[in-house]
C-alpha cells in the first residue's frame, strides 16, 4: 500500500478534502465496507433445487462455496413461487447446515441404555441380516389356504419428503421381499 | 453547494449527495411495506437472519403472548419484526385494540364482544433509514454512515459499542448486541444492493408486502395504492414515514398502515433527535469550560460542523 | 392457506387485488382469515352440512350450470329402483349390514349398468389381528368379523369401473335420475340446518352461497382449496365428494380458475401417492392384488379395470410395471410374474400395523423421514408399538422422538416403560438433505420438479436412494444361490442401477428412466399410450411415462416464467402428459367451443382437426367432439368426443358415485366420532362404516360426554412444519414459535378460569397434555341449538425433543378412521381443559384413569357403556 493510498484511506483526510464534510457518508467508509460484497457473488456454483417443506414446490437456488452450502434462497424464475419463500423455506440453509444434524450411525442394542456409534457398512450388514431373518421367521406362503407370499413381520413408514425415485425403490424392494405394510405420511 | 447541505432536519431532496457522494450516485433505495397484504408469515425475519447471519435467540425461548409475535421488538438480533394486532371491529364503532389480556379473560361483557368481527393486523417493521438519521449524526466513530444508496448502515469493523446511537433513534431500532457489544440493525442488505440484488426480506416476502426499489418510485406506488384502497372503501389506509416534511425528513423505509401508528407500536410523530443539535452546540461552545468529556469528544469528532457554520 | 402455504397464497392475494372474493371457512381465525373478504367460523367436523347446504342452494334455485351438468356429469343417469337414500333410512343408504358395518353396494348402481366385480364383490378377509385368537391384544371393531379392504385410494387416478351404459334422462325430470335423487337427498340441508349443525348464522351462509353462485357459470369460475382440515375425518373422502358435487354442478371442473385444489402439506406427498409407499397401491394407482380373488393377471385386470375409459388399458400398465421390476424373468409364459406380488387380505394400513406391533406380529420397522412418536394420532399407541419391536431403523436428519422413545419417551417418565426392558434394537442412520441428492418431488399440482445435488452429505449421512439400493444389493448378495422359491422375486429383481462417486451413490436419473419406461429397442417412451400388454414395453410408473421422453429429464425443465405462457409448460413436468389442468376438455362446450372467451383454455380447431389451446388437451388430441363410439369399442375409444372425464368408465363427473365408496354413494352429514352434540339430521350419529380400533390404549369418548365437554381441533402454524422434525430443531424457526400453546376464546377462559399465558391441562381418554394458554377473540364460541359450543385450538408441532419443546397434541387423539382411505380423524374430537400444569410421572396415569372412570370408560372394556350407537 502506497503512502497516498494510506492517507486517502484515512477517513478524516477524506472528510476534510472531499464533499462529505460531516463525515457521515463517503468519507466515513471503512476498509470493511470497501471490501464488502454479497457472498452469493463469490459462490463456486449455484444449484437449482426445490423447497423440502410443503407441497407448493417453491424453486430454490443453492449457493455453494468450497463444497459448503453458503446460501439458499428463492428462485425468481419459478412460475410457482417467483423467488419467494416462507419462513420455513427461508430457513432451509439452517435445515441442512444447522445444529443438531447427526452425521454418524447410532445403534442402541436391545435393552440398551445408550447409543453406540457403529460404522455404516456394519449397520447396513446388520440391518440386512435382520430383514432376512425376520422375513424367514414371519413368512406366509398362504393365508387361510390362499397363496399370499408375504411377510407381516416387516413394516415401513416413510415421510413425504422422500423423492419419487426413493419411493420407487422402496416399493420395489419391499414388494420383492413380500413386505406389504408399506406406508407413508400420505395416508396420515 | 446547495443551500440545504449538511442540515440535520427538514426536507432534504438527496441525502446521498449530502453525504458527499458524486452526482452519479445511484438513486436512493428503500422499502415500502404495504401491511394491507401482509400475512404475518415472518419469512422476512428468517430470510434476514439467514442472509445476515444474525444470531437466533434460542437461549431465552419464551412465549410472549402478544398474539403470534414472539419477537417483541426490533433489536440487534432482530432486524425485521412482524407485529400482530388483534382487534374487534363493530360496524358502528372504530376498531378496538384488544391488546393482549394480561391475566384472565378480558374485561367487559363477553357476549357484547361476540358481536364484533375480528380484525388481525400484521406489519413487518424495520429500520426506517431516515433522511435525517440521528443514529448516524451522533456516531462518534463514523461507524454509522450513509451509503451511496442513501441507506444508513453500521460498519461493524469500526463500531466501538459506545451506544450513543441507541437513544438517538426516534424509533428505538438500533441496539447493542449482548455478548458482542457492538450496535446492529438492518443494513437494507447493503452487500446485496452492491451486487444489484434486492434485500433478502423483500425477495422472500410471499405477498409482496415488502417492496424494494428507488424511493421515488415506491412513493408514487404507495400514493396510488392508498388512493386505490380508499376507492375500495378502506378509508383507514394511510402512509407512515412517506412525508419528506415530517420530523425525520421522511423515511427510506415507509409503510402503508390500516390503523394509527401507535397501534403497530410506531411513534406517531417521530422527530430526529439531533434536530436541535446545532443550536445546542452553539450554546455549548459559549460555555465550553466544564463541558463533560464525552461532549468534548463528540465536539472534536464533529468539529467540521462548527467550522462551516456562518 | 396463508398459514400453511404462504407462497401459494400470493396468487390468492393477487386474485383478490383483481377483484376476486376470498371466503375462508375454518373453525379458527387464521392468517388466511385476516386477508379474506369473509371468514366463516364453523364447528369442526361439520363441513358436509355446510357444503351440502350450498348444493341444496344451487339445486333449489336452479343455479347449476345446466348445459355442463347435462353433458358432462351423471346427473341424467337413472338409478335402480331398489336404491334407498339416507332420507328413507334415517341416515343409512340401502345395502347396510349392521353386523359387519359394511355396505353391499349393488343397489347404488345405475339402472342397466353393473360395476365390475371388484367394486360389487369386494375382497373380505379376517383382519390379520384376529388371527391371534381370543387372546389377541386388541379388539377390532366388530370383533372377529370379516373386514373389507380399503380400495378407494386406488381411484386416485380415476374412478372405479362399470360396465354397460346407464339409462339417461337428459331432461333431468325422471324421479330416479341422479339430479332428482340429489335434490331430495340434500333438501333438508338448509341455512337453518347450517345454523344448527355448524353454528354459522344463516345470513353469513347466504352471503357465501350468493358469492359462489354469482361467480360460477359460463363467464366465471370458483375454485375450492382445501387441506387436511377436510380429509382428516371419519368422513374425509365424503368431504371431498361433497365439494366435487358442488363444483360439478357449478361447472367449475376442468376450467381455468376452477377446480378443487388439494393443498398438500409435504414436498412430495403427491409423489408418495403416485409412486406409492402405500400398502394398497402399486405405482400409478394400480391396486395391490388381493388374495384369493385375483388368481392370475387376467382375472385381476378383469376385476379391477373397466373396459371403457383409459383404465381400459390397465393390463398394459400392469405388464409394463412387472417388466420394469422383473425384466427378462417376466414373460407371457409365467404371467409376467404376477404371482410374485404379495397379496393383501384386509387392512394393512399404518394404524393396523401398530396394532400388529403391539401383538408381536410385526417385528421389524423402518421409519424413513417420519416421526409417528409425535406425528401420528394417539402417539402413545405408536410408542408402545415401537417399544415392542425386535428392531427399528430410523432414517432422519436429526434425533427425532421416534428414535429416542426408549430413552426419554413420556412412558419412561410415567413408569409404563423401563428403558432396560424395551427389547427394540434401534439403528439411527443419518439421512441426506434435499441439497445433497438428486431426485424429483411431485408438488401439490402434480408437477414433478427435479432438485440437483449441491454438495455431498456429511459423514455417514446418505440418501434414501443410497440406503435402499445398497440394502437391496446386500440382501441379494446374502441370498445369492438360494433355491428357495420365496427368494426368486428378490434375486430376479432388476437392480443394476449405476453408482458413482466416493459414496457409490446410485443414479437417480437411472431410476427415473426406469419409471419413465422404454420400448423393446431400449428407447425411452414418450407417452403412456405407447404401453403394451404383450411384454414389449417396460414402465415403472405409467402415469409418469413421458417425464423422460427422448431421454431428456423434463422434471428438470426450468424455462424462466417470463419466457413462457402463464401455463408455464416448460417448468417441470406434470403427470399425465404434462397436462396442467385435469379434465380440461370440460373447458369447452360439447361442440368443442370455449364456454366463453373469458374462460377459454382448450378448444377444438376444426380446420386443423385437433384440440388446441394453452394446455395439453386432456383427451386424444384428434378426437372430434362429434365422435361417437361404435358398438363394442374399448378403453378410450368407448368414450364419446363429448366425454371429458376420461378416467371414468362413463366419461362423466359423478355427482352420485354408483361404485367405489365404502360409506355411501352420496355424502351425508355424520358427527365426528367424538362430538359434543347429537346429529340433528339423522338417527345415525356417525359414519356407519367408519373404522374404530378398541384397544386399552385407544379409548373413545361417548358423544355429548360431560366429562370431555369441549371440541378440539389440531392444526399447523406458519412457523413450523408438521410434527416439527424439520422445524423445532432449527433456531430461526424455534424462536418464532417457542413452545406448545392452546388457543381458547375469552368465554371459555372465563368458564374454566384459564389465564392468558398461564398453563392448561387438556385431557382425553388417551392421555393429558399441558400447553401455555393464548386467550384470543380469534377463537369464537358457537351457538348451536341454544347451546354454546366451545372449541380448543391445538397446533400439533411439538414434542419433547428439539429446541422448541412441548407436549404433542397428537397424544390426545384416538385412532378412528375413514373407511375408504383409512385416514385418522385428527380434526375433530372432544376433551376437557383445566387450568394448571399436568400431573407428572405415575400421577399422569392416575389423572387420565380418573377421567375415564368418571366418563364410565371401564379400564378393560373398549366400548363405553351407553355409547350405545349401533355403529360405534
Automatic annotation (TrEMBL), chain A:
Q: Which InterPro entries match?
A: Mopterin_OxRdtase_4Fe-4S_dom
Superkingdom to which the source organism belongs: Bacteria
Give a GO molecular function annotation for the protein.
Answer: 4 iron, 4 sulfur cluster binding
Q: Which UniProt keywords apply?
A: 4Fe-4S, Iron, Iron-sulfur, Metal-binding, Oxidoreductase
**SUPFAM superfamilies membership:** Formate dehydrogenase/DMSO reductase, domains 1-3 (SSF53706)
* GO BP term (any one): anaerobic respiration
Q: Which family does it belong to?
A: Belongs to the prokaryotic molybdopterin-containing oxidoreductase family.
Alphabetized Pfam families for the sequence: Molybdop_Fe4S4
- NAD keyword on record: no
Q: What is the lineage of its organism?
A: Bacteria, Bacillati, Actinomycetota, Actinomycetes, Kitasatosporales
> What is the designated name of this protein?
Dehydrogenase
What organism, scientifically named, is this protein from?
Answer: Streptomyces diastatochromogenes
GO CC annotation: cell envelope
Annotated PANTHER family: FORMATE DEHYDROGENASE-O MAJOR SUBUNIT, TUNGSTEN-CONTAINING FORMYLMETHANOFURAN DEHYDROGENASE 2 SUBUNIT B
From TrEMBL, chain B:
Q: Does the keyword Iron apply?
A: yes
Per its UniProt entry, which superkingdom is the organism in? Bacteria
Q: Which residues bind [4Fe-4S] cluster 3?
A: 127, 130, 135, 169
The cofactors named for this UniProt entry are: [4Fe-4S] cluster
- This protein's UniProt keywords: 4Fe-4S, Iron, Iron-sulfur, Metal-binding, Repeat
The processes (GO biological process) annotated in the record are: cellular respiration; formate oxidation
- State a single Pfam family of this protein: Fer4_4
Q: List GO molecular-function terms, semicolon-separated.
A: 4 iron, 4 sulfur cluster binding; metal ion binding
Where does the UniProt entry say this protein principally localizes? other
Checking PROSITE patterns in the record gives: 4FE4S_FER_1, 4FE4S_FER_2
Cite the InterPro entries for this sequence.
4Fe4S_Fe-S-bd (IPR017896), 4Fe4S_Fe_S_CS (IPR017900), FDH_Electron_Transfer_Unit (IPR051555), Formate_DH_Fe-S_su (IPR014603)
- For binding [4Fe-4S] cluster 2, which residues are annotated in this chain's numbering? 48, 186, 189, 201
- Residue intervals of the 4Fe-4S ferredoxin-type domain: 29-59, 118-149, 150-179
Please list the residues that bind [4Fe-4S] cluster 4: 139, 159, 162, 165
Q: How is the cofactor bound?
A: Binds 4 [4Fe-4S] clusters per subunit.
Q: Which GO terms describe its cellular component?
A: cell envelope
Q: Where are the stretches annotated Disordered?
A: 1-22
Residue positions binding [4Fe-4S] cluster 1: 38, 41, 44, 205
Q: Which PANTHER family match?
A: FORMATE DEHYDROGENASE, NITRATE-INDUCIBLE, IRON-SULFUR SUBUNIT
Supply the name of the protein.
Answer: 4Fe-4S ferredoxin
Q: What is the lineage of its organism?
A: Bacteria, Bacillati, Actinomycetota, Actinomycetes, Kitasatosporales
Automatic annotation (TrEMBL), chain C:
Molybdopterin oxidoreductase domain location is 13-398, 429-471
The primary location reported for this protein is: other
Keyword match Ribonucleoprotein: no
Region listing for Disordered, in residue ranges? 119-167, 853-872
Annotated Basic and acidic residues bias: 138-151
Task: Identify which cofactors the protein needs according to its UniProt entry.
Answer: [4Fe-4S] cluster
User: Which Pfam families does this one have?
Assistant: Molybdopterin, Molydop_binding
Recorded GO MF terms = 4 iron, 4 sulfur cluster binding; electron transfer activity; molybdenum ion binding; molybdopterin cofactor binding; oxidoreductase activity
Q: Which UniProt keywords apply?
A: 4Fe-4S, Iron, Iron-sulfur, Metal-binding, Oxidoreductase
* The keyword Iron-sulfur belongs to this UniProt entry's keyword annotation: yes
Sorted alphabetically, the Gene Ontology cellular component annotations on this record are: cell envelope
Query: Where is the protein found, in the record's own terms?
Result: Cell envelope
**Similarity comment:** Belongs to the prokaryotic molybdopterin-containing oxidoreductase family.
- Can you say what this protein is called? Formate dehydrogenase
Q: What is the species of this protein?
A: Streptomyces diastatochromogenes
